[in-house]
Design brief:
Elements lengths: L8 E4 L7 E4 L2 E4 L2 E2 L18 H6 L5 E5 L1 H6 L1 H13 L2 E6 L5 H9 L6 E3 L7 H4 L5
Parallel strand pairs: 1-6, 1-7, 5-6
Antiparallel strand pairs: 2-3, 3-4
Length: 135
Amino acid sequence: MDALDTSFTIATPTFPDNGRTVFKGHLFVGDALLSDSGMRNYPLTPMTDANFVRVLQAQTQRRIGLIDHRAVARGEDAVRSRIRELQEQGVSVAIVDVVTNEDPVRLGSAVRDLRLVTAGSGLAIGLPGSRRTSS
């Protein structure tokens, strides 16, 4: 973020088709919370907490927030509105709920103007259509 001189980004480590979803800030592997999966005892980075807002907040001085599934389901305008709210609250990074393959499509258009996005490959579902320009 510093290198790109940006004060806000999103993070969503998801790909619904592969069973990686985020709901209410919690990462799921299939139907299980990440903390209840085999990653709980991973030797390098044990995942004992599935709440990615808390996990990321513990790793940075930046404020972490959430764009929940309700905003994502309402589409681009609702996500952009939530981004503005979070920025006004001093949040720098928003974990984004992504539950279905339709969510990255809505999210892609909402974040197309951000200089940096951090996401699993699932976000790529929504980026191509968001980058189209009219002639």
